[in-house]
Amino acid sequence: MMDxxxxxxxxxxxxxxxERFKAEYYQTKIRYNKLHKLLVQLDAGTAPFTPxxxxxxxxxQAADMGIYLYDLEVRASLEGIEL
Length: 83
Prior knowledge:
Elements: H1 9-12, H2 17-44, H3 55-79
Helix pairs in contact: 2-3
C-alpha cells in the first residue's frame, strides 16, 4: 500500500489506464485515511488544528469518499485489477 501521494506520481503519469486507475484509488485512499485520522483526533480532542468547516461536513466528506472507494474496488474486481 502506498502511504504518501508522492508515491503515486509514476502511476498517475502512466499511459496505461490500469496504472492511472490504481493511482486514483491509492490517492483517494491516502486522503480518506488522513481525513479519518483527523476525525478521530477531533473526537478525542487531540487534533493538531481546528478546521474552519464543521465536523459534520468533514464526516460527510469521509462518507462520500468511502462510497467512492467502494465503487473503485467493485470496478477493480470486475476488471480484474489488483489493488
